[in-house]
Design goal:
about 290 residues, mainly alpha, Tetracycline Repressor, domain 2, 15 helices
């Protein structure tokens, strides 16, 4: 069971599913039936899990060269690497997209598919080993989850949904660049052109800081469009923590500060998503 959880990257999948719920809650329009929201959330979770499994299926050679990933199931031998996994991954993705379509609409299904496609193909296959822009463009996977939730409410995407998708797009690079500073030698040894490998830790640290500034600014601006005080409080607290950690990292780009910045980005995202969902639920309850 532990190997399966690792293979399908379910912790990441849960975060992506919550992102879809946040997109659903932030969008103005008619509320979905509870079963529709549940099916869409599970569809995004399954499609994300399938993309995570494909990432490990495709990168088994790369994972074997990195200390951080040598214990993954295909590398360690806990799971045999064969074509049956690829068939399962394709089937799970198809089921997830079909479920999103049947429960909501074609637009939500398309964004569900694009989220998995960008992580599995655009990031993993096309960009990760070739370009320092890998995680920047690959970060669209999280943005598409927001749009899937929003499109389930209305295919005509609202300004709130688009701005939240932009926030998720801007969040991904500083999150992974912080981790890349911690494991820079790993990435360099494996030949993966993450930003700290290509430009150095100091350049990456300042890139993290300015990304954090812009991203937090966008998250606070979102409060002007619809979400209320609860969202604003969560966005402000999480944003302040991330900016502080990113600033300390920029001043001293070492592994300890990079790991602190990485953890701060996780806390900031958690507060942002939970604030969005709780605020949307509270406004819906008061409206009812």
């Amino acid at each position: 069971m532990k190997a399966l959880l690792n293979l399908f990257k379910l912790r990441i999948g849960v975060a992506i599913a919550l992102t879809a719920v946040a997109g659903l809650m932030v969008s103005p329009g008619s509320a979905l039936e509870p079963w529709q929201g549940l099916v869409l959330t599970l569809a995004v979770l399954v499609s994300s899990a399938a993309a995570g499994a494909f990432n490990q299926f495709y990168e088994v050679d790369l994972d074997a060269r990195m200390a951080r990933t040598r214990r993954r199931p295909f590398v360690s031998g806990r799971m045999r690497h064969h074509g049956g996994w690829l068939a399962l991954i394709v089937a799970l993705t198809g089921i997830a997209v079909a479920a999103a379509w049947l429960a909501t609409n074609a637009s939500a299904a398309l964004y569900t598919f694009l989220g998995a496609f960008f992580y599995a193909i655009v990031y993993t296959v096309w960009l990760k080993r070739r370009s320092a822009w890998n995680i920047v463009i690959g970060g669209l996977a999280g943005s598409f989850a927001v749009l899937a939730g929003a499109a389930a409410v209305s295919p005509q995407l609202s300004a709130e949904a688009l701005l939240l998708a932009l926030v998720l797009f801007l969040w991904t690079p500083p999150h992974f660049w912080s981790l890349s500073i911690v494991f820079r030698d790993d990435y360099a040894g494996a030949g993966v052109p993450m930003l700290p490998v290509v430009k150095g830790d100091r350049f990456a640290a300042w890139a993290i800081f300015w990304h954090a500034i812009v991203m937090v600014g966008c998250s606070l601006a979102l409060a002007l469009l619809g979400p209320g005080w609860l969202y604003l409080a969560c966005a402000a607290v999480g944003g302040a923590l991330l900016i502080r950690r990113a600033w300390l990292l920029a001043l001293a780009p070492n592994r300890a500060n990079a790991m602190a910045s990485f953890h701060a980005s996780l806390i900031q995202l958690s507060l942002l998503l939970l604030g969005t969902i709780a605020d949307g639920w509270m406004r819906a309850s008061l409206g009812a």
